[in-house]
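## Example record

The block below lists the input lines for one assembly entry, exactly as stored, with component labels intact.
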Amino acid sequence: MAPAPQTRLTPAEACRAILAEIEPLEQERVPLADALGRVLTADVTSPIDLPPWDNSAMDGYAARASDVVAGAELRVVELIPAGGFPTRTLGPGECARIFTGAPVPSGADSVVRQEHTTRLDRDRVRIDDAHDAGRNVRPRAEDIAAGTVALTAGTEVGAAQMAFLAAMATFEVEVHRRPTVAILSTGDEVADEDEREEILAGRKIASSNTYGMAAAAIAAGADALSLGIVRDDQAQIRDRLALADAADLLVTSGGMSVGEHDHLRAILEASGDAMRFWRLRSRPGAPVGFGVLDGLPWLGLPGNPVSAMVTFELFARPAIRRLLGHRRLFRRTVPVVLGERLETPARLTHFLRVTLIEEGDALVARLTGPQGSGFVSSMARSDALLIVPEDRDEAGPGDTLRAIRLNEAAHVTEAPF
Ligand code: AMP
Ligand code: MG
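Predicted structure tokens for the full assembly:
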């Protein structure tokens, strides 16, 4: 059952409440070249053997192991370049000049590398070293056999998977559709490039969230649909929200607190049972709301730029990964050793911006500076979010805590905070 909206959830509970409303998107068939970062919806079976034939691992001479004896002279009966095929079976005392990757003729079970031979004339070669007897033939299908599962459903297509699929002549793949994340910033005081003069004159602040949230959405694998900035006005906000209806997730910034200009919370609150929660026991993240508006999951993040970036990482990113079809939604955390003293008095889970430096075997974490949520620079300078659990109100140099490395590529299924 969904928690009562007035309950202050822990960050992990918030993740569960969000993910309970989000399903992986439907599948589509895309050209392989467009599949980077997408997740396979079905197992991929190889239509061919890889390698497709017994082939040479060396430039040299294909021969029978029993003929590969130091001092033996063999008759060179043909030449097989990469791209060529043997025309005959090798008999005793015979060999074929062969190049890496070329099909090994039947009858041969060895390729003697060129450096272990002396070519005597056009038709004869001498074996100088018998080391390669029985070696350097890569058997057909040793990598993958036709008809077997090569990649399983749920696998993300990265560069290596892309190469593997291409090797199997699988030039189209079934993947989950890429989510579209609508991004909306709110606030009378925020402005974009078209009001740069106002910003420079100190009458407005730049909407860094418009850029930060869209970039974070794209970095997580989504398409971003920027809905720009809307003033603190209920009617205008409602009109703008309507533009998000084709999106798979709506992420807004600002307007989630308790002030009378915090219209987003009011809209969410007014829409029946749409709201799942709007406050969390975390910092940043106290005013984070989530609801489902006419079927569209809506995550309302705080306006403070640092809070917006951190809570996007904690709550929006796993949601986007779920939509993409990933099973592992959360970045793996790493143990870090504190390099300084810190106090986190309130009974909240804290996510502090830190830099990480390897010192000996340990990763030492130091705060990027003051942790006020107005410090836009702190997120840009941080390597990781240090997790200080709710039950800790202080920690000192040498203590080990866990941190979410912001460029960590490995993911886990359970929220690690
Ligand atoms: P709010 O959550 O709307 O109360 O906003 C909290 C703080 O974040 C205020 O100081 C705002 O000026 C600032 N803020 C709100 N939206 C943005 C934005 N899009 N970009 C940068 N700062 C913002
Ligand atoms: Mg505001």
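The two ends are 22 Å apart (CA to CA). The longest helix spans residues 305-324.
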